[in-house]
Amino acid sequence: MCSQQAVQSLASAAPQSGGSSGPDLHVEAELYRITSVCNTKAMRSTPPRKSGRRSPAEPQATRRAAVYLRISLDATGEGLAVDRQRKECQAILDARGWHLTGEYVDNSISASDAKKNRPAYTRLVADFEAGLFDALVCYDLDRLTRQPRQLEDWIDAAESRGLALVTANGEADLTTDGGRLFARIRLAVARAEVERKSARQRSAARQRADLGRPPLGVRLTGYTTRGELVPDEAALVKRIYADFLRTKNLRTLARQLDDDGIPPRRGDKWHPSTLQTILRNPRYAGRAIYQGEETGERGAWPAIVSDDDFETAQAILDDPTRTTNVTGSTERKHLGSGLYLCAVCREPVSSWSGGRYRCRNGAHVNRSRGVVDHFVTEVIAARLAQPDVADLLAPAEASHAPLVEQIARLRERLARNDADYDAGYVDGKRYKAAREKAEGEMREAQAALAQAQAGSVLTGFVTAANPAEAFREAPLPTRRAVVDALATVLLRSGTRYSRVFDPETVQVEWRTPQ
């Protein structure tokens, strides 16, 4: 074996001939020949050191490979596109002799939205961190991810741990600068196409809204995708609005629909959130929308509910006095909670332990709940038994038109204010002031409309054979609505320690029909 020591010993063995160049030239020539031989690849004493990571381009029969498959939308639910991806990925595994350790499938899940959960992708990342595979095969790079941040994570994995990433349209060697450039360019092109497609879809949706056409996408209950009525569903939507205006309670309405055996389009039971989505949708009043907001234009489809019914529903849903709690229920448990008023401070009373009603102050009123509710129920029932009960019917809808028009003008004003702010015509301070003023006027108008229509809840009772008995047997939310429509109930303090009920301490002030 050649070594530096051997070359040096040859030089020292050469005779020193006092200035003669012959022997020196011979030694130098021999040293040059030996050094050249020693520097050849076959004669190197130590092979070149290899990097600790493996290049994905090297044949690797022992690699453990994972396969990731994804399609954004599987319209038929048959998974045929995923099957096609699987076949091509399997062909890569067979050609390279790699061992399949796991298959990860996200069917009908988009990768364009970084916030969207992809369960299989999440497991894929976790299994790689656990060291379960060192090669990854997918149909195309944009099947794996369309997020630049996620791609950088895989690039880091390739550089630090030698991950081999292979796609059906070619190998992506993320351990080289050229491979990383290739991957980033492909992802940037795919991302740009997503953004262009999204822009085209938004433009088309805006154009459809301006023309009054129904938006594309999931079919709205009550309509076909072309905006034509589905009679049975339209009747159900109309009932939902009518019953909500009567009960003013989402949970009670859901229970009534379930009890009547009327199923929702999806699932087996109605939920308050489902009903609220229906009640909040302006399309049922024949109004065009874009990105969930009204455009101010009428839709080219028939309305299922009137404008005043829709606005009244919004006023009820927006009413700050409606209660909420951690269970999600907004249902009152007692007739007078939040309905009766303290005669001293005029604040609503609430129900307390021990079967009592108390005002917020606590010192003005503290009354036994049962006897007060019984008295109010009988007074209201007696009023409904009077011969002039027909006079309690709600006023004609035409009288509500000015309020409906005022609300429509306020909505247009809010939309113009938003447009002026977006265009930079007004600053943030003026925008905020103008919006707060318009929203305040909107709340007042909606409250006035709700009050004007409050009498409509009485229609079912005044036309009944026995209005008083119908009231007594009605559900609690309906009885509360009737009491609210007919009168204001004021509670005064009773006589301390007295066991005799004094009707003078419960004052019923009858409302005057508008």
Fold topology:
Layout (H helix, E strand, L loop, with lengths): L3 H10 L8 H17 L25 E8 L8 H17 L2 E9 L11 H11 L5 E4 L2 H4 L3 H14 L2 E4 L2 E3 L4 H34 L20 H17 L2 H10 L12 H8 L7 E4 L2 E6 L8 H12 L22 E2 L7 E3 L3 E3 L7 E3 H16 L16 H22 L5 H26 L5 H4 L4 H7 L2 H11 E5 L14 E5 L4
Parallel strand pairs: 1-2, 1-3, 3-4, 8-12
Antiparallel strand pairs: 4-5, 6-7, 9-10, 10-11, 12-13
Helix pairs in contact: 8-11, 9-10, 11-14, 12-16, 13-14
Summarize the structure.
This protein has 514 residues and is an alpha/beta fold. It has helices spanning 4-13, 22-38, 80-96, 119-129, 141-144, 148-161, 177-210, 231-247, 250-259, 272-279, 307-318, 369-384, 401-422, 428-453, 459-462, 467-473, 476-486; strands spanning 64-71, 99-107, 135-138, 164-167, 170-172, 287-290, 293-298, 341-342, 350-352, 356-358, 366-368, 487-491, 506-510.
Any overview of this molecule?
The protein is of the alpha/beta class and 514 residues long. It has 17 helices and 13 strands. It has a five-stranded mixed β-sheet with strand order 2-1-3-4-5, sandwiched between helices. It has a three-stranded mixed β-sheet with strand order 8-12-13. Helix 3 links the parallel strand 1 and strand 2. Helix 8 packs across helix 11 and helix 12 packs antiparallel against helix 16. The longest helix is centred in the middle third of the chain and has 34 residues. It is elongated and about 95 Å long.
